[in-house]
Structure formats: structure tokens, C-alpha cells
Amino acid sequence: MVRARGPDEFWRKRRIFKLAAHYRSRTRNVYTFAIRSVHRALAYATKGRKLKKLDMAQLWTTRVEAGCQQYGVPLDAFKEGLARSDILLNKKILSELAIWEPRSFEALVNISRERAAVEGYPDIKRRSAFNQVYGLNNLKLD
């Protein structure tokens, strides 16, 4: 009698070979090489998913920071002003607003700036005319 050890060996190997189908040479069709390569690839994929999340969070922070810098408000003061004004937007939405909706983002900056004026933050500066976003509406073409 053959001793049964877990799932059927054919299906276990088939699962590994399916994952290794796009590999070249013996890593594709020799089980010991294939399983080693597949396990390594799955480990890299797990790390890649985590790194992708970190990269996107860093990109969103950079975009929001650039938008705040454009209007003369530090990022920490901006976030604190929004939080105290009960405006709960995450980094992704703030970065989208900073890129695609500059007027809406400017309104949020103004709300944060007003909250800072009421509560007396030390970091808030007045906005300079050179830091404005110029579009076709703002340019005077005479």
C-alpha cells in the first residue's frame, strides 16, 4: 500500500508548474528548480506589494506638500488646520485635489489658514503673488 501524504502529488506539482510556465530552461520544467524559483518570485511579489503602497503614500505626501508650499503654508500646519476644522480628507484625496482641482485645494488652504489665524499657529505666512497658479483666466493678455 502506498502511504497518502496530503494532496495528490500530481496536482501539487501542476500548481507549481503553472506558476513557472513563463520561466526559461530547467526552471520551467524541473520541479526542484521550478519550486525554488516560484517561492522566490512569490516572496518578491509580497515585498513589491508593500513597497508599492509605501511609494504611493510618499508620492501623495510630496504632492500635497508641493501644493501647500505653493500657497505658503507648511504641511503640518495645513493638516492641523484641516483636522481642527473637522475636514477629514486623506492624503490621496488631498493630492488629487492639489493636482486636478487647484481652486478647491486653495479653498482648503484658506480654511486652514483662517483656523491658524484664530488659534495662532506660528508657521503661517501670507501668500505671495509669485506663488500663484497661473492659468488662462489669471493672465492679462493686453
TrEMBL record:
<dbReference type="Pfam" id="PF00453">
    <property type="entry name" value="Ribosomal_L20"/>
</dbReference>
<protein>
    <recommendedName>
        <fullName>Large ribosomal subunit protein bL20m</fullName>
    </recommendedName>
</protein>
<comment type="similarity">
    <text>Belongs to the bacterial ribosomal protein bL20 family.</text>
</comment>
<keyword id="KW-0689">Ribosomal protein</keyword>
<dbReference type="GO" id="GO:0003735">
    <property type="term" value="F:structural constituent of ribosome"/>
</dbReference>
<dbReference type="GO" id="GO:0019843">
    <property type="term" value="F:rRNA binding"/>
</dbReference>
<dbReference type="GO" id="GO:0006412">
    <property type="term" value="P:translation"/>
</dbReference>
<dbReference type="InterPro" id="IPR035566">
    <property type="entry name" value="Ribosomal_protein_bL20_C"/>
</dbReference>
<dbReference type="GO" id="GO:1990904">
    <property type="term" value="C:ribonucleoprotein complex"/>
</dbReference>
<dbReference type="GO" id="GO:0005840">
    <property type="term" value="C:ribosome"/>
</dbReference>
<dbReference type="InterPro" id="IPR005813">
    <property type="entry name" value="Ribosomal_bL20"/>
</dbReference>
<keyword id="KW-0687">Ribonucleoprotein</keyword>
